[in-house]
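Box S1 | Example of a co-folding query
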Amino acid sequence: MGAELSRGCVRGGRIVCPLHGWEYGHDGTCTHIPCAREIPALARQQAFPVEVRCGHVFFFNRAEVGFPMPFFDGVSVGELLAARPFEFTVAAPWYLVGANGFDVQHFRSAHDRTLVGEPVVDSRSPFSMRLTARFRVSGRAFRDALTRVLSGSEVQMTVENWCGNLVLVTAVFRRTTTYGLVSLQPLGDGSTRVHDIVWIKRRPGLLGSVFDPMDAAIRRLFIREFVRADVESSAGIRYDPTRMTAADKTLVEYLEWLQNIHRQTAPSL
Ligand SMILES: [Fe+2]
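Box S1 (continued) | Returned holo structure for fe (ii) ion
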């Protein structure tokens, strides 16, 4: 009847529906119905391959895994500490929210980051597209001034987008590196829920156990403020390929790539 299994419980490796107590195994088949001896064929859930990273559950949105769970280049999960995740909703479709990282123009106007040199677009896999660009922290706000003092006045930003809904962002300043893992969930009404986990590299020893949690919490605050500009400025946006200019080159490239991979890999569910 559509009861939420997330409100149920797990018993003996099976998920139990909170409403009628039907039990489902890890492959989605029903193994027990309290009020019936026979299990009808309709009693079945969709099952997804999952992976757990730092207590967060990620699932592959197909019956079979198409590629290994992506992570930040050059670091392992054990080297990083995750801050408490935060979420927000953007009144724009998921594919345009994901396109934000490839919209080089908006970094200057929405985030006070001035592009230095030319952005580079490449890809580590047919399912991913990556933009690497260097920016000057040019804003006059207190937060920007503090960023310049604590981290540095220039940042090399890498935005790696996997299939449009998982984005790995790395911001390398002279003194600090911050990692952001962003996942996008279409809400069905044309808007998108954005879930963001900020990670920092752990420091060794006592220094790390004392300062790391505080450092991660502060950077989470900074990044939440940083992306607030996206929530406000992206509300109601739409894509019209006939209205793009040369400055939108990477944005157009990204949307064309995304359209292509979704055409090639139609859902198998
Ligand atoms: Fe942005």
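Helices lie at 94-99, 104-111, 142-150, 205-233, 249-264. Residues 100, 106, 110-111, 230 surround fe (ii) ion (CB under 6 Å).
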